[in-house]
């Protein structure tokens, strides 16, 4: 069974991507800041979704599944203050979902609160401090409850979504050359993930709750990064990232990771953009004497081609290593995908088609499984006003495995849990986005 938690490498690559947006920015809301007392800048927006999910709990075709309409509300608030060159930002992001069928209890409300302090020290020195708390969830049928049926949810006390609490803080110091030829950064980060405790006197519920607690971890990360702006069109990146992860309840699962990363972001001929990061990962298991150390490639590559300014094709691939929920081995994830974005008649109306193909393979484990997931999406986006966007989307997910059933043990092998693998799931959704 796979615990789907991304590594610090993936997090860093995602953050880097936000600063390099393509022409599809036309499909985003136009920021509308408001100036309040003491010069504080305030921004807010909200997404309102109404949709239909034909397999709420990711159930196999061999087991009954729940279908339901749902409403989603996603407010975003941002407050920014400036003092000379220093910037202080507070953000809030909410995610509230309400299913309309009484037979499901999968409603959730997620909350993210973030503070970012950016201090300018002299001409070449920057200090960035980030602290955030994410009160999130894991859907029933995903992650720790992947492959479980409705009867198993009841047996193990999984009456609603698994609530999670992620704490994250980072301090980053950068030396930035004013002539823009490069930047050197040093960062220290601490992250902590905890699942909600569902303790019970029932033996089955107690065993599964202990299995959930075994997945709680804390991680310290140290990063050294060098960015080299070779030209106005090309930037190189070189990084060393070290992750030290400790599992609170089961120290045998502790891991140490070191990434050596080389990346490039370049634009060629005004039509082709390449954003590629390739890393050598060295992973050790300090408390597992019979486990072999792992060395291998991770990558995250995106090639965007715009033959004309109103149409962009993306080809992308990434590979990453994840920890399993049990002791021993690792999970190798590999993804390939494509996406086409096109604007019709004007910058207001656009469409997007996407297709992802992903495999997850258990490694260094006897009788491990390989799971294949295909994810197809289609979107129509209309920018009614700079501050109002309408979006109609459809998503089809097909998950299959080379094994019909799998199993894993919980609470020091006190009980064996059977998984029924594979599912089909589709979601159709209408979204209204409003900049307030």
Topology:
Elements: H1 8-18, E1 34-35, E2 41-53, E3 68-83, E4 86-99, E5 108-121, E6 125-138, H2 150-155, E7 162-176, E8 182-195, H3 203-213, E9 217-229, E10 234-247, E11 255-268, E12 272-284, E13 294-308, E14 311-322, E15 330-344, E16 349-363, E17 370-385, E18 388-401, E19 405-410, E20 415-420, E21 423-435
Antiparallel strand pairs: 1-2, 2-3, 2-21, 3-4, 4-5, 5-6, 6-7, 7-8, 8-9, 9-10, 10-11, 11-12, 12-13, 13-14, 14-15, 15-16, 16-17, 17-18, 18-21, 19-20
Protein name: TetR family transcriptional regulator
Pfam family, one: BBP2_2
Keywords: Signal
Write structural notes for this entry.
With 436 residues, this protein is mainly beta. It has one domain: Porin. The protein is 6% helix and 61% strand. The chain is built from three helices and 21 strands. The strands form two sheets. It has an 18-stranded antiparallel barrel. It is globular, with a radius of gyration of 23 Å. The N terminus is likely disordered. This is TetR family transcriptional regulator. Keywords: Signal. It comes from Aliivibrio sifiae.
Shape: globular
Work out the count of structural domains: 1
> What is the CATH top level name?
Mainly Beta
**Rounded mean pLDDT score:** 89
Q: Tell how many strands the DSSP assignment holds.
A: 21
Order of helices and strands: HEEEEEEHEEHEEEEEEEEEEEEE
List low-pLDDT spans. 2-24
End-to-end Cα distance: 43 Å
Strand percentage lies at over 45%
Query: What's the tally of helices?
Result: 3
Q: What is the C-alpha radius of gyration, as a whole number of Å?
A: 23 Å
Quaternary structure:
single chain
CATH topology: Porin
